C-alpha cells in the first residue's frame, strides 16, 4: 500500500510541476487525472487505520468517510475538467505551442511509476482497487506519450488540446458511476431486491415483514426486519432460527449486520375473542 501511495504522490507532484513549465493542456489534464486517483488512495491509506473504530457516537464506525471521499473526488473531477477544457480551448484557438519534449519525458516517468504501482503484491480489497487505477492510468499516460511523439515528429500541435478533450471525457464518464453509487447510499437505496430477501426468509419465518436493507458503504450492508412468531416458542428455538436467518442473509445477500424484531402472533387469541 505504501508503494502505491508513494508512486501516485510522485506522479501527481511531477505532473503538476511539469504542466506549469510545459504549457500543455494534455499534461495538465493528466495532473487532474492523477490527483483524482491520489485522493482516494491517500484516504484508503488513512482510513484503513480508523474506519472500523467504533464508539458511542459512531456506532457503525467511520465507513461513511468513503462516501465523503468519493464526493470530494467527484468535485475535483468537475472543477479540474472545467479548467482543463478552458485551457484546451484557449490553446486550440490561439494555437499556443508548449514544450512537448518535456511532456514526453514527464508522461514517460508517470507511466513508469504507474507500472511500478500496479505490481504491488498486496491483496487487500482497497489496495486491489488502487492497482486497477494504476493500470487504467497507464493507458492515459501511453496516450500522452503517443500524442507528444506525434507532435514532435509531425508538428501537428492541435493534437495536444484534442487529446486533452478526450482524456477529460474519459474522466467525466468514469466519474458517473461513483456519483450514482454515492447518491444511492446517501438516499439509503436498498442494494438488493427486498422481495428476494423476503422470499428467501419465508422458509424460515413465514410471517416476515417490514424488511429494510441499506448500505453504510460499499462493503457494509445492514438490514432490519419484523417477524411474527408463535408466542409458545422458547427463546432457544427462536435464537436457532435467528442464527440461520443471519447466515442466509450473509451468504446469499452479503448482509453482515441484521436486527430482527420479533412479534407475538396472536391470531389464535383474536379468534377466541370473536
Write the layout of secondary structure elements.
Layout: H1 2-22, H2 25-50, H3 65-94, H4 100-118, H5 125-154, H6 159-186, H7 194-201, E1 208-217, E2 220-229, H8 235-253, E3 255-264, H9 267-273
Parallel strand pairs: 2-3
Antiparallel strand pairs: 1-2
- Strand and helix order: HHHHHHHEEHEH
Low-confidence stretches: 123-128, 269-274
- How much of the residues is beta strand, in percent? 5-15%
Number of helices: 9
Biggest sheet statistics = 3 strands, mixed
Oligomerization category of the chains in this entry: single chain
Structurally, the number of domains stands at 2
* Principal-axis shape: elongated
Query: What is the percent of helical residues?
Result: 55-70%
Largest sheet: spatial strand order: 1-2-3
Distance between the termini: 68 Å
Radius of gyration: 26 Å
Strand tally = 3
* Global structural class: mainly alpha
Domain Cation efflux protein cytoplasmic: 207-263
Domain Cation efflux protein transmembrane: 3-187
GO cellular component, one term: plasma membrane
Main location: membrane
What does this structure look like?
With 274 residues, the chain is mainly alpha-helical. Helices cover 69% and strands 11% of the residues. The chain contains nine helices and three strands, in the order H-H-H-H-H-H-H-E-E-H-E-H. It has helices at 2-22, 25-50, 65-94, 100-118, 125-154, 159-186, 194-201, 235-253, 267-273; strands spanning 208-217, 220-229, 255-264. Residues 207-263 form the Cation efflux protein cytoplasmic domain. One of its GO terms (molecular function) is zinc ion transmembrane transporter activity. One of its GO terms (cellular component) is plasma membrane.
Amino acid at each position: 500500500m505504501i508503494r502505491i501511495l508513494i508512486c501516485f504522490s510522485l506522479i501527481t507532484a511531477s505532473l503538476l510541476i511539469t504542466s506549469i513549465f510545459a504549457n500543455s493542456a494534455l499534461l495538465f489534464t493528466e495532473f487532474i487525472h492523477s490527483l483524482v486517483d491520489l485522493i482516494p488512495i491517500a484516504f484508503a491509506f488513512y482510513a484503513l487505520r480508523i474506519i472500523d473504530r467504533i464508539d458511542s457516537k459512531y456506532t457503525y464506525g467511520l465507513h461513511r468517510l468513503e462516501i465523503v471521499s468519493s464526493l470530494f473526488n467527484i468535485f475535483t473531477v468537475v472543477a479540474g475538467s472545467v479548467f482543463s477544457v478552458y485551457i484546451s480551448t484557449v490553446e486550440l484557438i490561439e494555437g499556443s505551442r508548449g514544450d512537448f519534449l518535456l511532456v514526453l519525458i514527464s508522461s514517460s516517468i508517470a507511466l513508469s511509476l504507474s507500472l511500478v504501482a500496479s505490481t504491488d503484491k498486496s491483496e487487500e480489497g482497497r489496495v486491489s482497487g488502487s492497482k486497477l487505477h494504476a493500470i487504467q492510468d497507464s493507458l492515459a499516460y501511453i496516450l500522452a506519450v503517443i500524442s507528444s511523439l506525434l507532435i514532435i515528429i509531425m508538428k501537428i500541435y492541435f493534437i495536444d488540446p484534442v487529446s486533452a478533450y478526450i482524456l477529460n471525457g474519459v474522466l467525466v464518464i468514469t466519474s458517473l458511476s461513483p456519483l450514482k453509487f454515492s447518491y444511492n447510499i446517501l438516499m439509503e437505496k436498498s442494494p438488493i431486491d427486498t422481495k428476494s430477501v423476503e422470499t428467501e426468509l419465508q422458509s424460515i419465518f413465514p410471517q416476515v415483514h417490514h424488511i429494510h436493507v441499506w448500505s453504510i458503504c460499499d462493503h457494509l450492508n445492514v438490514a432490519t426486519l419484523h417477524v411474527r412468531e408463535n408466542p409458545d416458542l422458547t427463546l432457544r428455538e427462536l435464537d436457532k432460527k435467528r442464527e440461520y436467518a443471519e447466515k442466509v442473509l450473509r451468504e446469499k445477500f452479503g448482509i453482515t449486520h441484521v436486527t430482527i424484531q420479533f412479534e407475538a402472533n396472536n391470531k389464535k387469541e383474536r379468534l377466541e375473542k370473536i
